[in-house]
Amino acid sequence: MSALLEIENLDLYYGDAQALSEVSLSVDEGKIVAIVGANGAGKSSLIRAIAGIEKPRGGRVRFRGNEITGQESYTTCNQGIGQVAEGRQIFPTLSVVENLEMGGLLPRARAKAKQTMDEVFTMFPRLAERRDQLAGTMSGGEQQMLAIGRCLMGQPELIMFDEPSLGLAPTVVQEVFHIIRTLNAKGITILLVEQNVAVSLKISAQAYVLENGRIVMSGTGGSLLHDDRVRQAYMGL
Fold first, then answer.
1. Residue 1 above 60 pLDDT?
2. Residue 27 pLDDT > 90, yes or no?
3. Residue 161: which residues within 8 A CB-CB, separation 6 or more?
4. How would you write the chain as a 3-class SS string?
5. 79-124: per-residue pLDDT in tens?
6. How far is the C-alpha of 207 from the C-alpha of 214, rounded, in Å?
7. Residue 24 and residue 48: Cα distance in Å, rounded?
8. Would you say the C-alpha torsion 79, 194, 30, 84 has a positive or negative sign?
9. What is the mean pLDDT of residues 133-155?
10. What are phi and psi of 178, to 5 degrees?
11. pTM for the full predicted model
């Protein structure tokens, strides 16, 4: 199995405060890989560094063997790395269709934008029903579906999910994780950052535990799910 994404000794600072320290991990093509950890561990910082939103001070990020460290975020997106950001970050004053059209503006995605939108509406019938509705007037669950749909419009090979269950009702959370598994079954590689440790480890082939900006444990999702240290620290068991 080849690594689609490789992170090597990544250091990230906000001013003088170090957010990531020598973080190394790999994401194999076609797999779901989870990053788990407490609030403030550096999970979102890692996603932002991969996406090109934050510029690392040291280390390397490679995608399909090509170095993308510190590239602009639109360049990273156009190479096939999509992101479903924490808090959804849809455009609230635009309609559902307009939000999706924004996601399809990447050069890699323009030729098939209409076909992709049809596929998104097939996957998310509620979005089809609300295609002309302003995104900001929809429920949190519907907005999360829109955020995922907008990401899919860019035809990503890898999707990074940053806390996709945050602030959602339990039934909607189940639906979101079902969608993640469905996308993976379609061949999309997933990097999942999520506070729901039990569920994320259960669906992941590989997982990493991030504490204070450092990787402190790694293994298969199943092995970490049954590790006493992980269960006590993150699942209260």
1. no
2. yes
3. 84, 180, 190, 191, 192, 193, 194
4. CCEEEEEEEEEEEECCEEEEEEEEEEEECCCEEEEECCCCCCHHHHHHHHHCCCCCCEEEEEECCEECCCCCHHHHHHCCEEEECCCCCCCCCCEHHHHHHHHCCCCCCHHHHHHHHHHHHHHCHHHHHCCCCEHHHCCHHHHHHHHHHHHHHCCCCEEEEECCCCCCCHHHHHHHHHHHHHHHHCCCEEEEECCCHHHHHHHCCEEEEEECCEEEEEEEHHHHHCCHHHHHHHCCC
5. 999 999 887 789 999 999 999 999 999 999 999 999 999 999 999 9
6. 14
7. 15
8. negative
9. 95
10. -65, -40
11. 0.93
Looking only at the bridges linking them, the beta strands covering 32-36 and 81-84 are unpaired
User: CA gyration radius for the chain?
Assistant: 17
Q: Which residue has the tokens 């990531």?
A: 20
Strands 206-211 vs 58-63: parallel, antiparallel or unpaired: unpaired
The tokens for 37 are: 């950890």
